[in-house]
Amino acid sequence: MLPRLDPQELVEPLYQQFAQALKSQAYSGDISTQYGARLAVATDNSIYQQLPQLVLHPRSKQDVQEITTLANQSQFAEIKFSARGGGTGTNGQSLTPGIVVDLSKYMNRILEINVEENWVRVEAGVVKDQLNDYLRPHGFFFSPDLSTSNRATVGGMINTDASGQGSLIYGKTSDHVLALESVLANGELLSTSPMLIKQAHELAQQDSTIGNIVKQVIATSIGKREQILSKFPRLNRFLTGYDLEHTVSDDLSQIDLSRLITGSEGSLAFVCEAKLNLTPIAPAKTLINIKYDSFDSALRHSPTLVEAKATSVETIDSKVLNLAKQDIIWHSVSDLITDVEGQVMDGINIVEYNGQSIEGLAEQVAMLTEQLDNDIANKTGVIGYQVTTDLASIGKIYAMRKKAVGLLGNTKGAQKPLAFAEDTAVPPEKLADFIAEFRELLDSYQLHYGMFGHVDAGVLHVRPALDMCDPEQEKTMRSISDKVVALTAKYGGLMWGEHGKGYRSEYGPEFFGEALFLELRKIKTAFDPNNKMNPGKICTPIDSSESLVSVDGVKRGTYDRQIPIAVKESFKSAMECNGNGLCFNYDTASPMCPSSKVTRDRRHSPKGRAGLMREWLRLLQNKGVDILQLEQNINGWSVKRLLDKVKNALSTQRDEDFSHEVMEAMSGCLACKACASQCPIKVDVPDFRARFLNLYHSSYFRPLKDHLVANVEHMAPLMAKSPKLVNSVLSSKLYDKASRATIGYIDTPLLSVPTLSERVNTLQFESFQLAKFQQMTSEEKANYVFVVQDPFTSFYDAQVVENLMLLVQKLGYSPVLLPFKPNGKPQHVKGFLTKFAKTAKNTADFLNQLQQLAIPMIGTDASTVLCFRDEYQQVLKEERGNFHVQLAHEWLLTVIDHLKSKNNPFTFRKNTTTFKLFAHCTEKTALAGSEKQWSDIFNYFGLSLEKQSVGCCGMAGTYGHEAVNFENSKTLYEMSWQQKVDNARAEQLVVTGYSCRSQIKRLSNKKTKHPVEVLVAQLSE
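The structure corresponding to this sequence follows.
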């Protein structure tokens, strides 16, 4: 039995009082005090962990003013804040022991665009890719480009002065900020944009907050300008924290406080709105992927590429490249970055040219490729290159480059490449020598590491592999940090060239020197005299005795090391989440984590759920619970366990158990498994979610609907014996009302009439008799195909299985319907792991017996067929055997290859219909090429099939049938599917997933076809 878990860090009384007081104000946002909500923002993309007291989600800048005005009252003088956007910071910039003010959930509106004047006004929570998707039809984009662009917010970009690829041409975020609307720690609204020096001097005379700020900025930025210019390196990516150099124009005629706030890491004010200038989209691009025999060759060749006046020059080392090759993402670029025969590719540089036309870029490209041909001939380290001008292909390469950043975290072993010294910046001409010495430093510690970055700007991301659960390696991390600071200074650069200071703020005084650092503190004092805004980051106010944060700050490893190694290994998927946040992908057309998209709650994401799971395991360990032993001992039924569940159900302390917070987050998961392939770390939430549910329900009763779902594979065959009678009951209003009230289940699907058995008998397909097939010769068996049933298509969508068998027949084979064997997927989804293991073993034994016949086995439902490959392997391990069930399209590809060898005996009438393919989430994420393969299959049979970019339909098995999930299910469908479904004719819709076809029928009232139904019709013409 699970013990009750009390969160170890309760909200402090002062913050509880603040939360209560805020509820009585005109504040309209969310206030979260739950331990789980706080944990979800206790980490970012760094190695650090800091639990906040509260999490606030304001809906407007007026809400932010309500927060800060209240906190300015004397009784709340000790309240501290930190702004948060996408949580993508690699140095703990947004972590705080006070209040996290998350601007991403609601303050994500694009407010205004002026195409004539080339600007847009947005709220701080707008995601970078969201903004560019909005701007694209207008011919513009917001040019600072980040690897985290699908979840990084504009507010976060402003606070860290983000840059990224192409910054030599496009500059940093600060180069594109025209004006800001910010809220100060005292609640005042601060509007900033360039002002004439005369106006600034007039403001400085005022006895007001803004007057004091401008007065100090004049005194520092102009009065100390000589020291500033001599100290600040002349680097493209240089990030001071407070950009004292560019706050005033070169001719000292203007002052712009926005340049000061940009890059301040939220330590001066809450950025709420921004007016940004826009960059016209260059319609033509040419990308040259240059391949090298070593990474050193790639680095030493980079100055030549910078001289070639390219828009950007990016580099990737062999470690990152090889990790990408092992990921699903490589499928999309394998033909764009091919190996060089007889050579080992140990690094690449990616060179991009932008222009108005391909022809206009031709001369530059030709000059570079001629140079590359000479370099190859002279054996300078260049071993090959590929040129592409196709925009879609270029997009795929950059998608790989962006994901490769996160893939570093998926290296095997306890030591993981970590971001703590990964944004060093030196003059580009010194980069190769700097990196050579950097590598010597890391090699002296015998560490593995990955490297990638922007060689055109002298920025290279270096991530040494360390295990932060090991206290000794934590000390090594500190030692390396100190040495990298000294090394960058030696080469005229600095450690924080791109990703800000955060927990590296302690190095600020040494870098700036006492006098100049004092000026930073004066600026902080003018904006935030009481040190309420992200305290400890960059600097402290003049009169403050508080310390700067340190690289020695508390890390995630401090908590993770409290979990036994065996448990960490067993729950590896949850433990290895590194916080990269790819699961926060805003794009509704992406299948990644639909629950995160629809709730916009960080707990309902793979990262959030992994964090909750880690903490749950830690708290159980602190209670002395051997979780692995408990898993083995909860099988079966006992009177004691029943009495314990009754006791827990009646307990007045029931709601205080942290297990319920974890359960709430796990219950929102659709079990679509997109995370298992889309996440660079392969965080598989359905895997550890099933284990959690199994353990949780050893102490707490399961809802009736869970039992219903888990037994659907046993109930469906029984109901199919009287389908008309059953359907008459299921379709009645009385049943629907009773089902909603007692089970919590809605829109119960109706059984197929005629049933699959009746259809098969009518068509007189050959029946399955094992002994008969065992006696056949190999030549005889080559004519047969076994059709594997699943509970969804067999009993609720029988015409799909019927058409699959007809298709097999029309292609010259004899289809044989195998007897129905439960797959167990519904049991796994609901955490009935003991039952699932038994089901899986029985079915695996049967299918392994058939595997010996060497007759292909095919199925139609992706979630169940892929369950054979994934969940069966996880649970059964060696006992799974070697049986293989193909999905329909996988088998069809083999048939087409065979038909092509026979010179294609099929001829077709012209079919002018353009079919629209809506693929099942699990299928297209686990089998990356499936959509293209379906298109190729249709093309072979004379049909046109267009892939539709959609996310999750919102049904996901039985998820959408549960009343508690209906609104989220419906919203997910509206977010991604509805418009594309409604814009097509019903006869055009081709949908691979049974649950997806059900959702379309339910919410758009359109009957759709599985691809095999379309193919059968084509072969029948």
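Residues 572-701 form one domain.
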